[in-house]
Amino acid sequence: MYSIKQEATRCLKCKKPQCSAHCPVSTDIPRVMELFLNGGIREAGELLFLNNPLSAVTSVICPHEKNCTGHCVLGKKGEPIHFYNVESYISRFYMETTDVPEIEKNGIKIAVAGSGPAGITMSILLLLNGYDVTMFEAQDNIGGVLRYGIPPFRLPREILDTYKDVMLRMGLHFRPNTRIGSNIMIDDLFPDGYKAVFVSTGTGRPNKLGLLGETLGHVHFAVDYLKSPEAFKLGNRVAIVGAGNVAIDAARTAIRRNHSHVTILHFMGENDMTANQDEIEMAEIDGVEFVHYAQAVRILENAVRCVRVKRIENEDGSVSFEEDYTEIFDVPADSVIIAIGQGPGADMRAAGVKLTQRGLLEVNEWGETDTPGVFAAGDIVSGPRTVVEAVAFTKKVFQRMEEYLGRR
Ligand SMILES: Cc1cc2nc3c(=O)[nH]c(=O)nc-3n(C[C@H](O)[C@H](O)[C@H](O)COP(=O)(O)OP(=O)(O)OC[C@H]3O[C@@H](n4cnc5c(N)ncnc54)[C@H](O)[C@@H]3O)c2cc1C
Q: How many CA atoms lie within 13 A of 65 on its CB side?
């Protein structure tokens, strides 16, 4: 393990840095490293913040192996640079020590629906450019999945509190516990003087398995559990159905809440799981057990009934899975948590903007909906993805919103 100074020194400052090329927000990593090494931590922090207002978050929870770290040239023969450790230190230092700048207000009112990564990014960009921003949030605090999904042992909540504090000091109006598309509709906003609306309401509705037993009292959805784990009494044996990062977060949370046997079951093999490899490893270290090739077919009072699944490698190189109904077995469970993906809630259906077949908001490549003045980004547009992807697209939408408002 290298210190952050050693990491910055080891960095080759490549002319064509592959780390930056594979970063969805194209962070200028060599420049940040150079500034940091030459006593310019504030300049480095500013560079990071202006390019990616959520750098204090993405440095902690990005899938680094797929982005910067995974493409560092040093990784071809040895240990790649772990830029995210340097970035995390710089970004938090910058957020915690930098005064909010004096910004001339332009008097243009914008409404932001949702305070997850997309909503925070858009609000900061707007506030930095003098807009009068009101953020409407269905929950009682800002953050979206960052606060009500990703467990605190992976992302400390103080980071989000710092963001809230910074945005409020920049002049943000925050309306907690307020749903757009429920009592306040998008059409209500324009008569009150808002010139544009940004929708970033995410995909908070959990997908169902569609099995018998799913409505029983000991069955829960992972995204509901992760919102407030302390509200759930799960018993000793917890079975989690799913193979992605949300299943892993639910399992690692349950282990930390002293549920002694936590098992993840899913229909694929270990190497087919959609969760990040390092998250799977951490779950194994924490003591989570895995049952691979198990297709849940019914939920019983004290178990998940499964059938064995066979992995088939097809001639064209693709892989498929086939249930073998001759092999039936039960995974014992006092509680069952379902983590098989999320989709959009019903609010936007009521809000009157055009939706795709999946219920996501239909936008063009610049995040414009079919309703003039209404823009959108984040998971509500892309379906469940990553924080840094939400930031990247929101930046693009901000540019188009400014053009729409005649500011560019
Ligand atoms: C458990 C979990 C773990 C994850 N781990 C990672 C990870 O490690 N790394 C990573 O990069 N990505 C991770 N992701 C994905 C990532 O969190 C999302 O891609 C990202 O949060 C999307 O941002 P968003 O702003 O579009 O939506 P969200 O974060 O979902 O925020 C939407 C916000 O809108 C609010 N809202 C909803 N409806 C309304 C309404 N009608 N009116 C007003 N407000 C509303 C919600 O309450 C919420 O605060 C994870 C996701 C989950 C569920």
A: 5
Q: Do 284 and 368 lie in a common domain?
A: no
Domain end marker among 316, 338, 360:
338
Indicate if ligand 1 lies below 6 Å from the C-beta of 347. Answer: yes
378 CA: nearest ligand 1 atom = 26
What band does 183 get if pLDDT is binned at 50, 70 and 90?
confident
DSSP 83-131: HHHHHHHHHHHHHHHPPPPP------EEEEE--SHHHHHHHHHHHHTT-
According to the model, what pLDDT value does residue 350 have?
Answer: 77
Give the confidence band of 348 by pLDDT, cuts at 50, 70, 90. Answer: confident
The reply to whether 140 and 170 lie within a common domain is yes
Task: Assess whether 253 and 187 both reside in one domain.
Answer: no
Torsion of Cα atoms, 321 then 322 then 326 then 331, to 10°: 30
Domain count, the chain: 3
227 and 188 share one domain: no
**DSSP class of 69:** G
**Where among 69, 97, 125 does a domain terminate?**
97
- CB of residue 345 inside a 6 A radius of ligand 1: yes
Global pTM value? 0.96
For residue 293, how far is its CA from the centre of ligand 1 (angstroms)? 29
Task: Confirm or reject: Cβ of 244 under 6 Å from ligand 1.
Answer: no
CB 299 within 8 A of CB 220: no
Contact yes or no for 291/320 (Cβ under 8 A): no
- Residue identifier of the C-alpha nearest atom 20 of ligand 1: 387
Residue 223 beta carbon below 6 angstroms from any ligand 1 atom:
yes
| Same domain for 330 and 214 | yes
The pick from 201, 342, 355 for probing ligand 1's pocket by mutation, whose C-beta has the most ligand atoms within 8 angstroms, reads 201
Ligand 1 centroid – CA 389 distance (Å): 12
Pair of tokens at residue 119: 């909503």
Contacts for 281 with CB less than 8 Å, ≥ 6 apart: none
Task: With respect to residue 249, please indicate whether it lies within any of the assigned structural domains.
Answer: yes
Residue 279 belongs to a domain with what CATH number? 3.50.50.60
Backbone Cα Rg of the chain: 23
Task: Name the residue range of residue 60's domain.
Answer: 4-97
